[in-house]
């Protein structure tokens, strides 16, 4: 129906154009342009449909430099494998003889190692699992909650995600590693940094309990910020 409508519209357009004095060459050029636009539209729709059909898994991974979205396409006919990180293509294999296996790639500015495992469950059903730094996503996130702290605060109208890596004392803000200066104080240590015109520091004090270890608190402009759950 679309093609028939297009032809009818074109014939009416030709008749109208002859009335206003357009020559044949101009008509052909304009018709060619319409055809190209129509083909591009079909190609775009087909590509979008193909992606929707082959998209089999989506994960969100919280790292020091931000929360990253990982999407995986798996064509179970061709074996095609495509990985997107934050909407950008990170890996592509258009043809794979084996439908099971694994794909390894890096995520974020820290180039964290990630692996997608493809396992057959039964018949033509497949299971997809994500590993980060050699650990299952669940294990990695459990371990990360022990080795890092995260705070979220709005400064000057901008949401800031601040992350402390306890093992290195590195501090990140919205994907940028901050310049810091540490100092000893009476009850522990303070690691100072700035965000815009705001003075910030992370204070580390002993909890006095063996299991809890050291407690880290974020202070921005002399106000303590509650920790965020991820």
Automatic annotation (TrEMBL):
**Record key words, sorted:** Apoptosis, Cytoplasm, Signal
Species source reads Acipenser oxyrinchus oxyrinchus
Known role: Plays a role as an inducible effector molecule that mediates Fas resistance produced by surface Ig engagement in B cells.
**Domain of life according to the entry:** Eukaryota
Subcellular location as annotated: Cytoplasm
Q: Name one GO biological process term.
A: negative regulation of extrinsic apoptotic signaling pathway via death domain receptors
Query: What is an example of a Pfam family matching this protein?
Result: FAIM1
Its signal peptide is 1-21
Instruction: State which gene encodes it.
Output: FAIM
Q: Which family does it belong to?
A: Belongs to the FAIM1 family.
UniProt GO cellular component terms: cytoplasm
Q: Which InterPro entries match?
A: FAIM1, FAIM1_dom_sf
- This one is known as Fas apoptotic inhibitory molecule 1
What lineage is on file?
A: Eukaryota, Metazoa, Chordata, Craniata, Vertebrata
């Amino acid at each position: 129906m679309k093609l028939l409508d297009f032809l009818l519209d074109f014939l009416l357009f030709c008749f109208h154009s002859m009335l206003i004095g357009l020559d044949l060459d101009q008509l052909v050029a304009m018709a060619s342009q319409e055809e190209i636009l129509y083909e591009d539209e079909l190609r775009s729709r087909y590509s979008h449909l193909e992606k929707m059909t082959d998209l089999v898994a989506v994960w969100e991974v919280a790292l020091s430099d931000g929360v990253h979205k990982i999407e995986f396409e798996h064509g179970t006919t061709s074996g095609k494998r495509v990985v997107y990180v934050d909407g950008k293509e990170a890996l592509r294999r258009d043809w794979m003889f084996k439908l099971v296996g694994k794909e390894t790639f890096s995520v974020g500015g820290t180039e964290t190692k990630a692996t997608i495992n493809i396992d057959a469950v039964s018949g033509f059903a497949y299971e997809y699992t994500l590993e980060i730094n050699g650990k299952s996503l669940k294990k990695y996130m459990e371990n990360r909650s022990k080795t890092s702290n995260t705070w979220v605060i709005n400064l000057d109208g901008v949401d800031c995600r601040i992350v402390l890596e306890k093992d290195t004392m590195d501090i990140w803000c919205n994907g940028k590693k901050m310049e810091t200066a540490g100092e000893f104080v009476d009850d522990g240590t303070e690691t100072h940094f700035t965000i815009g015109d705001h003075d910030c520091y992370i204070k580390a004090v002993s909890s006095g309990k063996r299991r809890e270890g050291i407690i880290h608190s974020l202070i921005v402009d002399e106000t303590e910020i509650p920790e965020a759950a991820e």
